[in-house]
Design goal:
Four copies of one chain form a homotetramer.
Chain A: E1 13-15, E2 18-20, E3 27-31, H1 38-51, E4 55-57, H2 74-88, E5 92-95, H3 102-108, E6 111-114, H4 122-129, E7 135-138, H5 145-157, E8 163-167, H6 185-193, E9 197-199, H7 201-205, H8 211-220, E10 225-229, H9 247-257
Parallel strand pairs in A: 3-4, 3-10, 4-5, 5-6, 6-7, 7-8, 8-9
Antiparallel strand pairs in A: 1-2
Chain lengths: 258, 258, 258, 258
Amino acid sequence: MNKQILTGKEIVVSVGNLKIGGNNPPIFIAGPCSVESREQILETALALKKIGVHILRGGVFKPRTSPYDFQGLEIEGLKYLKEAGNQAEIPIITELMDEKNLDIVLEYADIIQIGSRNMYNYSLLKTLGNIDKPILLKRGMSATVREWMMAAEYIAAYGNTNIILCERGIRTFETYTRNTLDLSVVPIMKNETGLPVIVDPSHGTGIRELIKPMSKAALACGADGLMIEVHPNPEKALSDGHQSLTIEQYKELFEEIN
Amino acid sequence: MNKQILTGKEIVVSVGNLKIGGNNPPIFIAGPCSVESREQILETALALKKIGVHILRGGVFKPRTSPYDFQGLEIEGLKYLKEAGNQAEIPIITELMDEKNLDIVLEYADIIQIGSRNMYNYSLLKTLGNIDKPILLKRGMSATVREWMMAAEYIAAYGNTNIILCERGIRTFETYTRNTLDLSVVPIMKNETGLPVIVDPSHGTGIRELIKPMSKAALACGADGLMIEVHPNPEKALSDGHQSLTIEQYKELFEEIN
Amino acid sequence: MNKQILTGKEIVVSVGNLKIGGNNPPIFIAGPCSVESREQILETALALKKIGVHILRGGVFKPRTSPYDFQGLEIEGLKYLKEAGNQAEIPIITELMDEKNLDIVLEYADIIQIGSRNMYNYSLLKTLGNIDKPILLKRGMSATVREWMMAAEYIAAYGNTNIILCERGIRTFETYTRNTLDLSVVPIMKNETGLPVIVDPSHGTGIRELIKPMSKAALACGADGLMIEVHPNPEKALSDGHQSLTIEQYKELFEEIN
Amino acid sequence: MNKQILTGKEIVVSVGNLKIGGNNPPIFIAGPCSVESREQILETALALKKIGVHILRGGVFKPRTSPYDFQGLEIEGLKYLKEAGNQAEIPIITELMDEKNLDIVLEYADIIQIGSRNMYNYSLLKTLGNIDKPILLKRGMSATVREWMMAAEYIAAYGNTNIILCERGIRTFETYTRNTLDLSVVPIMKNETGLPVIVDPSHGTGIRELIKPMSKAALACGADGLMIEVHPNPEKALSDGHQSLTIEQYKELFEEIN
């Protein structure tokens, strides 16, 4: 177990019939920051499916800065998300925060997301190396390119190379945007690891108006997909409302790009 | 569970007869980055005890950037560390990386360290709220003051206020030092949370020659203790040798400060 | 003199017949980091003109970190640059470092560049407000969006609104790239100031292979132009050779983009 | 002019009878951010002299982020500052922003301050190499240790080694403090350059309550002095009031430290 596995040789990740990476067309992942109710996620799923979205996202275990903030609907939310994915006939992705919930998330989700806060959680990464579900590995909020590569290598070293990388902005001195979206990692990480790289302009900027231009930029430099927060009613969202697009706004973005 | 618990009221943490924080004299934690062998940790423990060190540190589960680097002696190392602490008659501290090893670490260690990479691991923090051992919570490598406060609050909110905070440097543009030691958080965090705050100048600078001046600075602005890497033979250390003091160098620092 | 002038109303900057900003097609600025000899700049100018470049760049006063590094050919270099621009029939841009050389630079250059190191040089900015030549104002290496806006406002407040902004990467913890190219400022600065915004992917990444993908990304999110370092023989360049494209590489990039 | 001059050999800077650096006791520089009126600076100077301050500071040319903010009393203010220094019988320091005002500042000031925004202004630094007044060179807001060393080297290379370095905090992701005070540069810069290094905890933290603990920390790690903002009435200050101490607060700090 001493030879680096991710060395730049192209890896295409399959989710059902969907192919991510390589020369495949970019994939579109969308959905609310949090699953808030059965109605909310069902409505969103059906609307997004109609627009052409490939994968439905929705958080059910939420890593919140304050222990007193909404922590997600947890397993109940996961069931709603699954039901929504089933009705809309699209695969679902959700974040896993710990090993405790691995089995249930494995049972329901098609892709397991590891969030920025857990990119350095090597125990969890090793565990994910032992399963064969695709993993979406977000960059840590101040992770260097090498640290991110090595985090992916932890998963690969233990046996799972079905990894999708996701740039979501880094922490810098700038306060105008929520994070500084670092698009240079798209060509860098694709070249260094061979893995597909997608971009999350919602967290990457934190500003609704910037999502469209940064989505175009991401695809222009080679991103294999986009993950964007969409909420049927951002003003009432329990988290990240200010950076969520309405379904209508997302539709416009989707059509302009495609 | 909605009212902030850590509001600045002074909290003194007890480890056996040792009191940390408040008006108590600063505590000295020292030992190698990694427990490497029974001999190494025994030799170090006895020498440090003789110098006057209060708590022995030693890593047995190591969060390493690369999966191919030395990952620690794990449970075997923990037993060596415990034996060394027993022989030297000083309490021990070691890092816990995941819930899987919580029971065994609880059994052996006197203080449980949560490293920078796990400061945002809210699932683990919640679990630590349910035990009553003291927790040493390192600042995340780019954690803001508020995020660090809230990480401690996760532990407190679930019932455990025996928390020691540890500044270990933050990530900035500067490359001369390994990290930028941010001493302003000593008065800030003491005031905001009431918890004891100690400083780790070894990781905070990454440069052996800077450990003494920065230790003095840390105490001058109110730090409740220092955690310093000491190795009987830094040149042969399996990790962090370049920033470790020899026992002789540590003795000189200890005497100059006390 | 108390009302903000740059408020988002679109400003198109003219350089001879060239229009920059608004709905005009993107402009291409290229040339060596430093003017090194008459032959070098003439050869480059003629080759770039043939490819379709709009403006020739070349540094003659060089702000170097070390006082012992090559400081540029100064006025002699400026004359070579002018001659090259004349022969190739394209306007020229060069950096001004101080007021002392303002008159001579004004006489020769078509656009005056203010580099990152002088973005906060408010005395110089005020002086540039009193002339009517176009100014290319690079973002400071750790300038916030607001500071950059206000630096442009210094020029505008004293009477000159012929300003082109240039993103060239910011300083972050990342060391893989020379700087972190922050493309989100393209839509932000265009919207906040109304000024044209161009991108310099050469300094923004410091890596030859990243220039093409980041150029495409810059244009995709609305950049009004690109400034790229090109050298007939990068291996022998006196400065920034590793991030310079050969003329052949630039031609390929230019054709692929246009 | 090709051999590095500042190589770590100790340099003591003289200002009248005052010696700065080496084994000399720390010097105390204090005064308002801006000279606002004859009365304000006279009152401050006399009060500070009585406390024991060695050097009076006061800004008359102010580098403000916005062109519409108070830009200083300029030459009128310089005359007030000089008069105050004369009456209190202490030397004065003020910031120079450009060559235009060099002669008048040279005539009045005992030390010339180069602010953070001009640390990379190499033209100005070269000019200061040709005079023999002491220069206080602040670190740029995101200047690396090497860049700061080389900025000092610019002055030294042109003939003036009467340089005092001043750490004033760097720009990081943290927003709780105005800047992150990087005290590790005190031993680093003293060792690398041999020059005296002082610390400005007022800009370094931006928070009145942190000035005392960080002053103590600065001296504990070897700083050769402190520069602190003091205003007779911070609430009415035209700039930086929130980080200024009252004369009474400064007196308390001065006595506690001495």
